[in-house]
Design a protein that fits this description.
Length: about 280
């Protein structure tokens, strides 16, 4: 009787998991199928087209006047790789200071840092724009890149929690051997925080890659557009939208972050799972 109940419980659990998985996968499968459809077929309740429009991909890649999607890919990669490197380097330095160094009002400043996570971005939008406009940074990549040099409160908090789980005895041993604070940071803490750094890298790159609002605010020239803005150019209120080409390009646009996630998945899961277990 007990074995029968266990079997039914496992069967019900697996059935529920399969049903939830299908619900989550269905939009992606529809998205893939729709990228090969004609505009007339997009609204039909079918997963796959009656005739596969393979040309949606090359036509979509070259659809925008004067610019191919290669141009927008290069723009997005330049902006997001630079911002990600700055995010991770700055966040790791600040996190090391909060986790290992002693200085006046450390807990107060850390509390202020955490409060900025709760601050809606809309509150700081106008002051930031005014500041960047006074610097003549509008229509450049600087407003998208320079703030990353501040580290980002979320990434600092993530790495602080991980560093706190590392025994301080390692620091003391390094000091006895004559290692400076920067040496401890570079030679001991950074190698041990690799999972947290990978997690911060993935978060930073994906959030920056998907960001539509910030480039919309600060970039005016088409030659500086990132991929989200380029996709928006497909939607023309004065003419019919080539939905097949738009969906094809949007599907290709997620390729870099998906590849980065799967290549670094092991370290990402480890970083999220072990962050904050101690301290």
């Amino acid at each position: 009787m007990k074995k029968e109940l266990d079997f039914k419980g496992k069967l019900l659990t697996h059935a529920l998991l399969i049903a939830v998985s299908i619900m989550m996968i269905y939009p992606v499968v529809w998205w893939f199928g729709a990228s090969f459809k004609t505009t007339q077929e997009i609204g039909l309740p079918t997963l796959f087209p009656s005739k596969w429009m393979w040309e949606n991909y090359p036509d979509g890649w070259n659809a925008l006047p004067k610019y191919t999607f290669t141009y927008f890919y290069i723009n997005s990669i330049k902006v997001n790789v630079t911002a990600t490197i700055l995010h991770v380097v700055a966040a790791s330095l600040v996190a090391f200071g909060f986790a290992r160094l002693t200085f006046p009002l450390k807990n107060f400043w850390f509390s202020i840092l955490l409060m900025t996570i709760m601050l809606p971005s809309q509150v700081t939008l106008i002051p930031q724009y005014s500041m960047f406009h006074s610097f003549n940074w509008v229509n450049t990549y600087l407003p998208l890149v320079v703030p990353a040099a501040m580290g980002g409160a979320f990434f600092i908090f993530l790495i602080v929690q991980f560093i706190r789980s590392i025994p301080r005895e390692l620091d003391e041993s390094a000091k006895i051997d004559g290692c400076s604070w920067f040496g401890i940071y570079w030679r001991i803490i950074m190698p041990l925080t690799k999972p947290a750094l990978v997690s911060a890298t993935i978060f930073s790159f994906i959030w920056g890659w998907d960001d539509y609002f910030s480039p919309l605010i600060y970039l005016n020239s088409v030659d500086k557009y990132t991929i989200p803005l380029a996709l928006r150019m497909f939607i023309d209120t004065q003419s019919a939208v080539a939905w097949g080409q738009l969906l094809a390009m949007s599907l290709l646009s997620i390729t870099p972050p998906v590849l980065i996630f799967f290549l670094a998945q092991k370290h990402f899961v480890e970083g999220i799972a072990t962050t904050g277990l101690k301290g």
